[in-house]
Design brief:
alpha+beta; single chain; about 110 residues; elongated; 3 strands; about 25% strand; three-stranded antiparallel sheet; 3 helices
Length: about 110
């Protein structure tokens, strides 16, 4: 969350604080979720959820992205321990936001109100 650690911290400071607080954690599982809601009327409400599963790494790695990208390791990169901040092109089509938007786009391509 953007509020983790209080006001005035940069993204990097928040991510580093998270690593510090998780130093002795036995479970590092984590995920990002994006939930899109399209409200047309009380009878027409559509939700689309994108989720990216992974874990919190042990160090701040990578120069791309923002927020917790440099400490978040997607499941695809568990073995190599590469963060999402190391794979900006992969993130474009696999992030939680991208997945939710793709679901919405597919749905609305065939939408008939």
């Amino acid at each position: 969350s953007a509020r983790f650690g209080g006001e005035g911290l940069s993204d990097k400071q928040r991510a580093e604080l998270l690593l510090e607080k998780m130093q002795n954690a036995t479970s590092r599982n984590a995920y990002f979720i994006c939930l899109l809601c399209f409200y047309f009327s009380p009878d027409e409400i559509y939700f689309f959820e994108g989720r990216l599963d992974g874990s919190i790494g042990h160090k701040y790695t990578g120069e791309h992205g923002f927020g917790y990208d440099p400490v978040f390791i997607p499941e695809k990169f568990t073995e190599s321990q590469e963060t999402i901040a190391m794979h900006p092109d992969w993130k474009k089509s696999h992030s939680h936001r991208s997945l939710a938007a793709s679901l919405a786009l597919d749905f609305f391509k065939n939408f008939k109100s």
